[in-house]
Structures are given as C-alpha cells and as structure tokens.
Design brief:
Shape: elongated
Distance between the termini: 39 Å
Structural class: alpha+beta
CATH superfamily of the largest domain: GTP cyclohydrolase I, C-terminal domain/NADPH-dependent 7-cyano-7-deazaguanine reductase, N-terminal domain
CATH topology of the largest domain: GTP Cyclohydrolase I, domain 2
Number of helices: 8
Largest sheet: 5 strands, mixed
CATH architecture of the largest domain: 2-Layer Sandwich
Helix content: 40-55%
Strand order of the largest sheet: 5-2-3-6-7
C-alpha cells in the first residue's frame, strides 16, 4: 500500500534547516526551495513508500514454464541512493544482478526497476544488495541469486576524509552462488 509523505512537515523542516544554516528562507532564491525539496523527495525517496513484499508484487512479471537453468545476469544498472547516516548522495552506483531460473524468468527491465525502487530509500549499500536479492528470490522463486553493487559515497568523497577515488563494492550471495565457488567466479569474470 502506497504511503504518502507529509509535504507540509517536509517544507517546514527545510525552512528550519535554511534558517539554522543562517540564511533567509524568504529571500528570492530560497522562497520556493521548501516546496521544491518536498516534491523532489516524492521522486528520490519513492522506494520508502513500499515494503520489499510490495515491490516484489509490483514487479512480479515473469515468463512461466521456462526450461532453462542457465545463468542470467544483468549488469551496469545505474541507480543512486541516499546514505541513511548523513542523508548524503550515493552516486555512480552500478547494480549487477544474476540468478538461476527455477521454472520462470523475470522480464529484464523489471530487474532494473527493482534496483531503482530499492535504491530510492534512505539506505546502506549493504542493504541495497540484500533487499534486491530478497525481492529477486520472491519474484523468481529461486534461492540462487547474486547481487553486486558498486558506488561512490559523497559522505566519503565530499566531506570527512574526502577520498575522491574511493569506491565501495558490496554483494549479497544466495543459494548456489554461496556454495558453488566456480559459479560465483563465473559471475565475477562476466562482470569484468
């Protein structure tokens, strides 16, 4: 069930933040900023409106009676997210999703849509991997899922240590990908 955001509360909080930073929320350039931010949050945090089960139901578009158990990989799915620790942008993120079909295959665009919706939350990169893997298992009816996410975090590149070239890579490894090291290595080779 889609949850709605409280736009008035968001606008009030943004006005208070502008004031706390020492600026005037009534000045020309900032007058409409609280409303713009509230509307932007509708888009960039859309995934917070849904549980993993609801996302799985939303994108449960599979082709049944598939007699293939060959590896399927979609790589280089672009997403962005916001770190829940600093509300800082996680950018240049690429999701790579692989699975072994179990009698059905998901439409390929649905994999990208799942990644996008999961990323549109206050997140940890590790949880992005786990959430995508969880949803893929539900939709595809297979335990055999691997998700790898690479990204840059502005909480590391633009503040604090300011390590501009640091990239973070995380993975969620389920089923055969966890136990069959040759299969896992095949995935890593295909991602190069």
């Amino acid at each position: 069930m889609k949850k709605e955001f409280d736009h008035e509360k968001i606008k009030s909080a943004v006005r208070a933040l502008i004031e706390a930073l020492g600026d005037d929320p009534k000045r020309e350039g900032l007058r409409d900023t609280p409303d713009r931010v509230a509307r932007m949050y509708d888009e960039v945090f859309e995934g917070m409106r849904y549980t993993n089960d609801e996302i799985a139901e939303m994108f449960n578009k599979c082709f049944e009676d598939v007699q293939s158990n060959d590896l399927v990989i979609v790589k280089d799915i672009d997403v962005f997210s916001y770190c829940e620790h600093h509300m800082a942008l996680m950018y240049n993120m690429k999701c790579h999703v692989g699975y072994i079909p179990n009698g059905k295959v998901i439409g390929l665009s649905k994999i990208a849509r799942i990644c996008d919706m999961v990323a549109k939350r206050l997140q940890l990169q590790e949880r992005i991997c786990a959430d995508i893997a969880d949803i893929m298992q539900k939709v595809c009816g297979t335990e055999d899922v691997i998700v790898i996410v690479e990204g840059e975090h502005s909480c590391m590149t633009a503040r604090g240590i300011k390590s501009r070239s640091a990239k973070t890579r995380t993975s969620a490894i389920r089923g055969l990908f966890d136990t069959d090291h040759e299969l896992r290595n095949e995935v890593y080779q295909l991602l190069k």
